[in-house]
Amino acid sequence: MIKKILIANRGEIALRIIRACQELDIKTVAVHSTIDENAMHVRLADESVCIGPPLASKSYLNISSILSAAEVSGADAIHPGYGFLSENAKFAEIVNEHGLIFIGPKAQHISEMGDKVSARTAMKKLGIPLVPGSDGAIKNLQELKKIAKEIGFPILIKAASGGGGKGMKVAEKASELEEAWNLARSEAKSGFGDDTVYLERYLANPRHIEFQLFADSFGNVVHFGERDCSLQRRHQKVLEEAPSPALNEEERAKISKVIVKAVKKLGYLGAGTFEMLYENGEFFFIEMNTRIQVEHPITEMITGFDLVKEQINVANGKKLSVKQKDVKIKGHSIECRINSEDPETFIPNAGNIKNYHAPGGFGVRIDSALYSGYKVPPNYDSLIAKLIVYGNNREEAILKLKIALKEYVIDGINTTLSLHEKIISENEFISGNYDIRWLEKFLKNND
Ligand code: MV4
Known about the structure:
Blueprint: E1 4-7, H1 11-23, E2 27-33, H2 40-44, E3 47-52, H3 63-73, E4 77-79, H4 89-97, E5 101-102, H5 107-114, H6 116-125, H7 141-151, E6 155-159, E7 169-171, H8 177-192, E8 197-201, E9 207-215, E10 221-233, E11 236-242, H9 249-266, E12 270-279, E13 282-289, H10 296-303, H11 307-315, E14 332-339, E15 351-352, E16 355-357, E17 364-368, E18 375-376, E19 383-391, H12 394-407, E20 409-411, H13 417-425, H14 427-431, H15 438-445
Helix pairs in contact: 4-5, 12-13
């Protein structure tokens, strides 16, 4: 039985995990860098350990510091949150070797899904529809030319160790293949230390729709529906909603059934997300995430289940608290990511929060570690708050969001609050008729 969890993270997700632990009567250990001494997760945890200097590679990514902190505090499990070490298979393995529980999937699955080529191979075997492309890595330019011709242009070269869009290169026609091949491989090499690439047909205007899955150690697998994450800028999600305005019940049921079956066969454990591209009524697998995601709250709002508590319970060897037949998707939820960035240039800024007032009311949720007088450090991700709304339907959720955005005060630094106000007043957003290209086009036209 887990009695004490070390949270290998900071910011809002550390608070989210602390709150779940408090409900489960589990003690918490915060870890922090020197610059995070006054951070909210340090104040709210039962105890805290300083694990190094501000640089993430020396603190939140420092495996030996984190394990020492677990040792001295007597923690019996580690929750990695998202980012940092959450999808590091070696970390999961080392945690287990130290006799601690890693709150996440098995290291073998983290590693298999971390390599996008082996993820594709695994998903193909499990019957998941893939974007048409290469069976494995591309060995040389000749092979690239041959497979590209077979699947048809435009094509996209992707890095096996990539994800999040880095190292992707489009080729519109055969004459562009050599340059795209060279660029993709050198970017992959310098970005990930691995120049392995693979090939997919390039989808021009898909939506990004991801499915939330959960598995326990008894072979039970449940899906919690989907999130539409098409509103992104430079591969950073900006606003997410659930359910997707593009799907009907029939389409959802059909693809979910295929995914649940695959996850059962895989022998997976814990929370997992299937990232799919959706175009002309068809789904194509692109990646699987083996962590709790930033946007998990919108799934919690429309299903009523606490995904972080489920993560802890299944890691503890318990059964999922929920059966598929009890998962009912009800109402609509939207999340705005509030970043400490200029709303026009997106340049990050750090500094003092001089005045802070969070909105509230029926159906309004804030996941944030901000407080009045807090100093946002320049060293980490610029996500400072998530504003999540829930309404009986999409129109009501948008209305609540509009009111909450207007009420939200974060003084002292630039934030993306005003960007969200702009997005949700646009017809394409209101109608729900947008794809992965829409936001960047909209931002360009408003320069
Ligand atoms: C694609 C694609 C079009 N066709 N794959 C971007 C990040 C990575 N997770 C996968 N990505 C894409 N893969 C094929 N075959 C377009 C994107 C993509 C994208 C995907 C989801 C959300 C926003 C995006 C923005 C640009 C490109």
